[in-house]
Design a protein that fits this description.
single chain; alpha/beta; Rossmann fold; 2 domains; eight-stranded mixed β-sheet; six-stranded parallel β-sheet; about 20% strand
């Protein structure tokens, strides 16, 4: 992949030069945030010039063209011990290295009309802000979640958790505009003191027609999980549920699709519970929509979710969802509004799954409701909303 150079003549035909900074990048890591950044970039690339800044997970040169007018730039290399699987959890040291190098990368490839730095992890926001101050560029932020004090301390301990909380607090004062990915995130930002006119709702989308065109795979799964294998997703809770559901459904089959630092621990858990014939793992699916379409239920036991694109994709496939009623799980609001699944708590997860497995008619009703409801989510609309925020920020800069 060769380095990319854009001529001044080519730039004259394009409205804005947009930079989006996020340490992970699709398709080398495949979380919801990476997918959203990718889709926004590709759609806006039809009219603007978009540059993505990430850790270098690809082979070849430090820059390459993702799509017409869309370019990826390496801010730094991954650590020698950092695999793409480990990268899905935003490890501290690689994130710090990325953050320190981001200022130079943005200045090197600039100037830009606007810089969007994705909120999590929060450290890069400071490097992006420094570059913006030096170049006079407005900084906005695609804001994924708002972490609370107990969550920081649970993840990083009392000392480092407090440091993280301070970094997040400071990061909330750096952008001139926030792009909240869900109503939950928008409300949390407002509660944290952000002014209402400083937040725009920019929800993720899906390619509904493309999903409908994907053929279902042969075979079937009773239960399916798709997502990162990290602690907050609580995949262990799903495995425990399978062990109990098996008492009434001995042949129950569960598919777990995803990568992350918890995979080895989860595989060991499956062995200890003697569930090898019931639970299978796939780091990446050949086509996840084909797997969704042959699954009776998508189980999403995450306790912390800023949005939950995978639930909308499941709904578009006609697959009912069971998710957890956790205070920081924004995806439960999607299930409530779309009526395509069940929201339960940890204790009633087994009951909810068992009820749906036993009731095909109910599953079909939920599947039809979800498929119709999911039509309203569209990547073109997502990119248009983001583009309006970028354009308004850019205009403010020109008027200053």
């Amino acid at each position: 992949m060769p380095d990319v150079f854009i001529s001044s003549q080519e730039r004259l035909a394009i409205n804005m030069r947009i930079a989006i900074a996020y340490d992970l990048i699709y398709p080398f890591t495949m979380g919801g945030a990476e997918r959203m950044v990718h889709e926004i970039a590709v759609h806006l690339g039809k009219k603007h010039e978009v540059h993505l800044f990430s850790i270098k997970f690809w082979d070849g040169g430090n820059s390459y063209e993702i799509a017409p007018n869309v370019y990826a730039h390496a801010v730094c290399k991954p650590m020698s011990s950092q695999s793409r699987t480990q990268a899905t959890s935003h490890n501290l040291l690689p994130t710090l290295i990325y953050s320190l190098a981001l200022t130079r990368a943005l200045l090197k490839h600039g100037p830009f009309d606007v810089v969007d730095c994705v909120s999590i992890p929060y450290m890069p926001m400071y490097g992006a802000k420094l570059a913006c101050m030096l170049s006079g560029t407005p900084l906005v932020s695609l804001w994924l979640e708002v972490w609370r004090g107990p969550h920081w301390r649970e993840h990083f301990g009392r000392v480092m958790g407090t440091v993280g909380q301070i970094l997040e607090y400071g990061a909330r004062h750096l952008p001139c505009k926030f792009l909240a990915i869900s109503k939950y995130t928008r409300d949390a930002l407002l509660e944290a003191g952000v002014k209402p006119d400083g937040v725009e709702l920019v929800q993720p989308g899906i390619d509904w027609k493309a999903i409908q065109a994907v053929p279902a795979f042969d075979g079937s799964w009773d239960l399916l999980y798709v997502g990162r294998l990290i602690k907050d997703k609580q995949v262990a809770l799903l495995i425990e549920a399978v062990a109990l559901v098996r008492e009434h459904f001995p042949e129950v089959r569960c598919r777990i699709i995803g990568e992350g630092p918890e995979r080895q621990k989860l595989e060991e858990m499956v062995k200890s519970l003697q569930l090898e014939s019931n639970v299978s793992f796939a780091g990446r699916a050949e086509d996840v929509y084909g797997e969704m379409k042959i699954s009776k239920i998508m189980v999403h036991p995450s306790r912390r979710e800023g949005f939950g694109i995978v639930l909308i994709e499941a709904a578009a496939c006609g697959t009912p969802v069971v998710t957890i009623n956790a205070s920081d799980n924004a995806s439960k609001d999607l299930v409530y509004s779309g009526k395509f699944g069940i929201v339960c708590d940890r204790i009633t997860l087994v009951q909810a799954v068992s009820e749906l497995l036993s009731d095909q008619a109910r599953r079909e009703t939920m599947g039809r409701a979800g498929k119709e409801w999911s039509r309203s989510f569209d990547w073109e609309q997502t990119a248009r909303c983001a583009g309006e925020v970028y354009l308004n920020a850019s205009k403010r800069r020109r008027n200053d």
